[in-house]
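Quick question: what would this complex look like in 3D?
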Amino acid sequence: MELWELGAWDIAHKVRAKEVSAQEVLESHLARISEIEPGLCAFLEVLEAEARIAASRVDAKIAGGEDPGILAGVPCAIKDNMNIKGTACTCGSKMLDGYISPYTATAIKRMSREGAVVTGKTNLDEFAMGSSTESSAYMVTRNPWDPDRVPGGSSGGSAAAVAAGLSTVALGSDTGGSIRQPASFTGIVGLKPTYGRVSRYGLVAFASSLDQIGPFGRDVRDVALLLEAISGLDTADSTSVERPVVPWSKRLERPLKGLRAGVPKELLGLSVDDGVRDAFYRALSHLADMGAVIEETSLPALRYALDAYYVIAPAEASSNLSRFDGVRYGLSTRGKALDDMYHATRAQGFGPEVRRRIMLGTFALSAGYYDAYYLRAAKTRTLIRRDFDEAFKVYDVLLSPATPTVAFRAGEESGDPMTKYLADAMTVSANLAGIPALSVPCGFARPSDAGLTGRDLPCGLQIMGKPFDEETVLAIGYAVEASVREEMEEKSGRMRRNLLLSKECERVD
Amino acid sequence: MTERAYDMTIGLEVHVELLTGSKMFCRCSTRFGDPPNTNVCPVCTGLPGALPVPNHEAVKLGLRAALGLGARINLRSGFDRKNYFYPDLPKGYQITQYRTPLAEDGFIEISEPPKRIRIQRIHLEEDTGKSIHAGDDITTAEYTLLDFNRCGVPLIEIVSEPDMSSPEEARQYLERLQRVLRFAGVSDVKMEEGSMRVDCNISVKPRGTAVSGKPVEIKNLSSFRAVVRALSYEFQRQARLLEEGKTVVRETRHWDEAKESTYPLRTKGSSQDYRYLPEPDLPDLVLEESFVEEVKRDMPRLPAEIVAYYTEKLGLPEYDAEVLTLDPNLSRFFDDCVERGADPKTAANWIMGDIMGYMNRQGLTYEKIPLSTENLVEMLGLLKSGVISGKIAKDVLVKVIETGKTPSEIVKEEGLTQVSDEGELLSIIQEVISANPGPVQDVKNGKEKAIGFLVGQVMKATRGRANPAKVNIMLKEKILS
């Protein structure tokens, strides 16, 4: 077995036990990157030199008898909307072309302190707006399971890198499903923690009240381990919350007997592909076999979640993205007068999806429309929260498919924006309610557009939990994972070993 | 022109910089006058990914202001974003309090005419950076430089109700407001340095009509004098428009100090839409009752309380008490003198008379009272014990201020000790009597007033050092006996 095939849990243990060095682990990954990356396009930048320094530091710590941390020597890729001092942070946008950040995000600082080795910055939909990573201004990332398909988004680069074995774990950000949906599309595990669990300081804001940084890994334990490293109160983020950081990675095995899980019918009522539905029900019956009580339930306000999300998220985005004005950093296009500079800079710097959302949000906040749109959406959000509160009085967790379909073909998304917004229906309510939600692979499904020769693709199950109860969410994820472990390991192992992406993908510099 | 047939309604929006060491949402210094762009960080320059954290000291000072203005504190208030594009606003929005301010319903009492000016709201917000246009004229500037040192400095905005009906009332309101904020230690409130900024809203309507006029906002006012002038100008301009049957346009106008007139700011189409939005990066500002109590307890004494103390406990006339509470330094100076044993009324007289007179002539501010309380109290002691005369004391005071020496040193060096020795005085009195037979005769004839002239002559001959009371008695004895 190659070192790049190991999980974070194993790497950290082997490095701490001096069985392998952090530098050996890193070199294995860098070699893997140079082999696969040209055809995968997961990384906007590989931070080779920086990673080598970080790995040698971990080794030096171990040699000096110091504690190297719980992620000793674990390679980690970072979505390129998080700041690392001295490196570029493009957010997948022309707007931030050439921008070098003067500071490091709290989550990355914490992770590095625990011995993680940052290997590079990964591709994303421009400013994290999208669900295919195709709206990146720089390149289109491929899905390692099928290079003609998208890895999901917006954290598609991070998901593809982990799925393909270019990185052991990765950080993504999730505003309406941007971690869970790509995790589902690429057959890996992704967690959106409770709002406030992980500091947002250094994450370029899309929609501040919904954004949350979270971990990707190839199994639940790795995700739990990375969560341990990045969680906790940060005085630089006023919305971060003081809650004890639990050793989640050691609390995964837990009897499911008597555990109550609800399945909101409002989510299953959505158009879910048959194959995905089948995989979801198979996972449910496994859970039931292990003693969980599973019932259909109703959270009526979820019917309006997508509508509320597509008002609140663009409204906040329109304000958050105002700072990209060409005055201080990033792209600046000259104009005759001040307004001309603003117009030219923003017209050139932002792609069509970002412009569309800025316009939607600007409209929703305008005088005369605020009450009908923003305020109404905010009230709907309160109703959704209330429905979750009620449901969690009865159930420990709520379950749904993570996505209505498996990964779709590249280029499909460019059509009607409404169709693609609908694909977020499963995931947005967890962001609106601020609750933790995990996507864990639950099996494989045949894409509806696959035809006769089509391959089965992975799909995920979503587990939503009570605020700050990541412990239960992860434990159930672990149980789901166990039920499909053999099939997953066999298929994904084969996928990685046989991965051959002959065609180089196009990159825009 | 029949101006008198029109009434004006004035409301003021006052921005005040708080006296905190660091900014509203980051830890950068608020120091004034540092080299441009040296007190900046990712937060106050709006770099992507940076987040605001409220400054508790600013909240405390905001509370003090609210308490000083008798306002009702909102234990739960919130922050909002005011969105607009401008180069000195790095985030593209200003964090302010729009939906629920820190405090509401305060007031300021003015005295002429006695009137209560209501304060609608007091809220916290952050300052913008500073745009420095090449050549100072925004319309012709070739380029503009930006300094973000001021960006993020904590402000409170104090919005009055439209309760003022003359420029003079506006001036009184501002003076009283300034005084309260200074005493409360909230701000140094200097219009010249921009730590106090005033925007005026004024509307004009024909007297006796119920219709309210359209409000016009005036900006760029850099002194109280400018406020008064601009309001007077604007009243006349609007009254003239109404007189001519024209309508007043609701707009923002700039005060041109040099031309003594207002002109409209460039407006593009419809009015600015700030698209206010609850600030998602900041939770509601929730104040514990105990915290408010603590701020109340630590509240410095305010002018009204001090005036009451001066009049009731120290027996000063109302007028004296008001003058001494024009400024916290001045009242502290007075308090210190009294504490050092000076008679309150005498100390008040000297401070309000000779000292403030000297300061006015020299153009000094209350921050720099030019002598120590020790020296003033020592001089009052010399005067009281008869070592120096009142006339000499005036000279001694000036010399103390100008040389920094103590009053005793000056009296000793210049031989200014009062002459009370009867032998020495007698010979001078004799000379004066023989040199002024006319007035002497008047005194003999019962013209009491003539004695003053003779006393003056004796004072002159002793260069003011004679004890005038003693001279008076001795002269009368000499002439009438």
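Answer marked as accepted. Residues 3-289 of chain B form one domain.
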